[in-house]
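Question (not urgent): is this output format expected?
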Amino acid sequence: MSDLIAQALTFVRSPAYIDLTARQLAIIGVAMDAGQPLRVKDMAEAIKVEKPVVSRALDRMEREGLLERRKGKDKRDCFIHVTDAGRAFRASIGGVA
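Got this back:
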């Protein structure tokens, strides 16, 4: 992994820059690395926070078009899906899309 400061500079200089928190960046990274949609519950466990914290972060990320939530078959589960814009965003800051 390259230097965090260098990554931050690359990120803020990007023409696709979106002002996201470190937690929101972690969420998009975990969601993409999972290779399949994750339940909100699983995301909360992965980043060591409570579900409402993830839900608030997802609200912002959905408004930006980076992620979307979709209900599962039984309607109780909610899954996080990375959008094409989310993949393009990660690629624009030097990540693997």
